[in-house]
Amino acid sequence: MKKFNFNLPTSIRYGWGRVNEIGKVTARYGKKCLLVTVKSFPAMKSLFDKVIKLCIEAEVEVIHFDGVIPNPTTDSINLASE
């Protein structure tokens, strides 16, 4: 295997109203994002809709994958790539 370095810095934004920054922050990384979730359920719908709206306002295309399962198989991961 060829040698390489991998660096993945993490920025955690926490606090009241911070979700409002998601479009602007996401736009810094590109024009498309993959939003990975479990199957939709009513309690999270308003938050999900807000995230989508904020990303679209920031001109970020959202691709949604809601097929997350516990202990995912390669088949379920491959579904996300489609």
From TrEMBL:
Keywords assigned by UniProt?
A: Oxidoreductase
State whether keyword Oxidoreductase applies: yes
Which InterPro entries does the UniProt record give? Answer: ADH_Fe/GldA
Q: Name one Pfam family in it.
A: Fe-ADH
Q: GO molecular function, one example?
A: metal ion binding
Record-annotated Alcohol dehydrogenase iron-type/glycerol dehydrogenase GldA domain positions: 9-80
Record's keyword annotation contains Oxidoreductase = yes
Name of protein: Alcohol dehydrogenase iron-type/glycerol dehydrogenase GldA domain-containing protein
